[in-house]
Write a structure and sequence with these properties.
Elements (H helix, E strand, L loop, with lengths): L1 H30 L4 H14 L2 H6 L4 H14 L1
Helix pairs in contact: 1-2
Length: about 80
């Protein structure tokens, strides 16, 4: 049973790291709209949330997560 919990913890950490990267990149893009690194980070995170890998990690809907993150970024 411990292996399953460890897997869940790792999956959660991966997803939270992607969320953190996305938020930081969106914040950077607000200040520096031409920042290529931030642009590519948001693109890669979007790909991740829509990927089969993401679906294997969680039951969350990646499109919904992205929508929520975008709404959050729009509010700031």
């Amino acid at each position: 049973m411990g292996e399953i919990r460890a897997y869940e913890n790792l999956a959660q950490a991966i997803i939270l790291y992607a969320v953190s990267d996305y938020r930081a990149a969106k914040k950077r893009l607000r200040k520096f709209p031409d920042d290529r690194d931030a642009f590519f980070t948001t693109r890669e995170v979007r790909r991740f949330f829509l990927s089969a890998y993401f679906r294997n990690l969680t039951n969350l809907n990646g499109e919904v997560v992205l929508k929520q993150l975008q709404e959050e970024a729009d509010e700031l």
